[in-house]
């Protein structure tokens, strides 16, 4: 069973205190058992929680909090690509979030659509392919148009795959797949999910201090390592991301079996 780990600014540092916080993700660590080699996860999910609380803390509106969070999301996506992550899943706006006030939902959709259009050039330059995961039913037309544009513009890239969950719920994904499933095993079932190309997640990082998956990637998180960071999403820096990757590198993943090497 995977375990959560709460990051704290003053307590968590990569072992051996390397000059760059991510160094210990890639390099063996003398303080670990000789049977373990540290490495970076290939498939990571980010649950960017805390935009509204951050806004309230700074005397701003919820919309301003979501806007600040969207700016951070762009930067962390580019950081993840630079750090060698192959697949990044961003839990953007869930089907449960769609039940918020119509004004807040409309604001978020406008912000995301705008950032998609703005992000085409950035993703294209970085070799990142973007794919939206979730139900398109209920999304406004401006969002659907923005999704079509950015998916088409980045479809040929392969340096990193970026999945963005919009109007997505893990239970609904499993229910819809189960309704179409006629047998054949896990691999056949996996192909019926929203994004069959999404591999099982090595690491799930949630900001904002809450310790739950909130109906997120349920199938893909079966054996994920979990990191819960107290920072609200707009305050989640590249250093915090690197620290989470370093924390993953210190763990032994058993996957229900005997200890397994990470390297």
Automatic annotation (TrEMBL):
GO terms for cellular component: cytosol. Binds 2 magnesium ions per subunit. It comes from the Bacteria. Residues 1-12 have a biased composition (Basic and acidic residues). Residues 26-36 have a biased composition (Polar residues). GO terms for molecular function: ditrans,polycis-undecaprenyl-diphosphate synthase [(2E,6E)-farnesyl-diphosphate specific] activity; magnesium ion binding. The active site is at 49, 97 (proton acceptor). Keywords: Magnesium, Metal-binding, Transferase. Substrate binds at residues 50-54, 66, 94-96, 100, 206, 212-214. It holds the Pfam family Prenyltransf. One of its GO terms (biological process) is polyprenol biosynthetic process. Transmembrane segments: none annotated. It is an enzyme of class 2 (transferase). Residues 1-36 are annotated as: Disordered. Mg(2+) binds at residues 49, 225. Its EC number is 2.5.1.-. Homodimer. Belongs to the UPP synthase family. Catalyzes the condensation of isopentenyl diphosphate (IPP) with allylic pyrophosphates generating different type of terpenoids. This is Isoprenyl transferase. It comes from Mycobacterium spongiae. The gene is uppS.
């Amino acid at each position: 069973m995977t375990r959560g780990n709460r990051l704290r600014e003053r307590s968590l540092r990569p072992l051996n205190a390397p000059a760059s916080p991510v160094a210990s993700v890639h390099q063996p660590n003398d303080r670990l058992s000789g049977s373990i080699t540290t490495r970076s996860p290939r498939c990571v999910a980010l649950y960017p929680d805390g935009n509204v609380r951050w806004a309230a803390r700074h005397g701003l509106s919820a919309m301003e909090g979501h806007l600040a969070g969207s700016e951070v999301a762009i930067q962390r996506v580019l950081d993840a690509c630079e750090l060698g992550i192959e697949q990044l899943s961003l839990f953007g706006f869930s089907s449960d979030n769609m039940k918020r006030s119509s004004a807040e939902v409309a604001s978020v959709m406008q912000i995301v659509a705008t950032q998609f259009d703005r992000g085409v050039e950035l993703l294209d330059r970085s070799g990142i392919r973007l794919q939206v995961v979730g139900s398109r039913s209920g999304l406004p037309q401006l969002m659907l148009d923005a999704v079509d544009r950015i998916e088409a513009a980045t479809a040929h890239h392969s340096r990193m795959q970026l999945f963005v969950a919009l109007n997505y719920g893990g239970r609904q994904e499993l229910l819809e797949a189960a309704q179409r499933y006629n047998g054949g095993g896990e691999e056949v079932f996996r192909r019926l999910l929203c994004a069959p190309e999404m591999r099982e997640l090595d690491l799930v990082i949630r900001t904002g201090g809450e310790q739950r998956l909130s109906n997120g990637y349920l199938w893909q998180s079966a054996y994920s390592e979990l990191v819960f960071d107290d920072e609200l999403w707009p305050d989640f820096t590249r250093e915090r991301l690197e620290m989470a990757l370093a924390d993953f590198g210190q763990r032994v993943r058993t996957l229900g079996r005997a200890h397994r090497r990470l390297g």
